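Example record

The entry below shows one chain as it appears in the dataset: sequence first, then structure tokens.
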Amino acid sequence: EVQLVESGGGLVQAGDSLRLSCTANGILLDGHAVGWFRQVPGKERDGVSCISSIESAPYTWYLDAVKGRFTISRDTDKHTVYLHMSSLKPEDTAVYFCAADARFGRCFGQDDFQYDYWGQGTQVTVSS
């Protein structure tokens, strides 16, 4: 059984930084495209960023609202995908999920259709 686990969320002030981590049991994330999504209660889940697998052409994508502030990266030694978030804003408050795809290797931007495995999410709260 494949399980994705997010960590690193918390309560911070506007302008602060956080680093979210996504790890997996049952698969090595290195060979999978990984996406980060966020969801606020009562609203649809939004794609935030994604990164292609190490076996695909290097590619990353960011939601316009986070460009220049968030960075997605991999640590292949630790088989972990990170979402580095800086200059956080109250509107970044959400539950953040990571997801991994099993079919494509590359990511397709904000669409979630490709992802086969999802984590349970980690709460990020940014106070003003």
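Notes for this example: The radius of gyration is 13 Å. The chain is about 0% helix and 50% strand.
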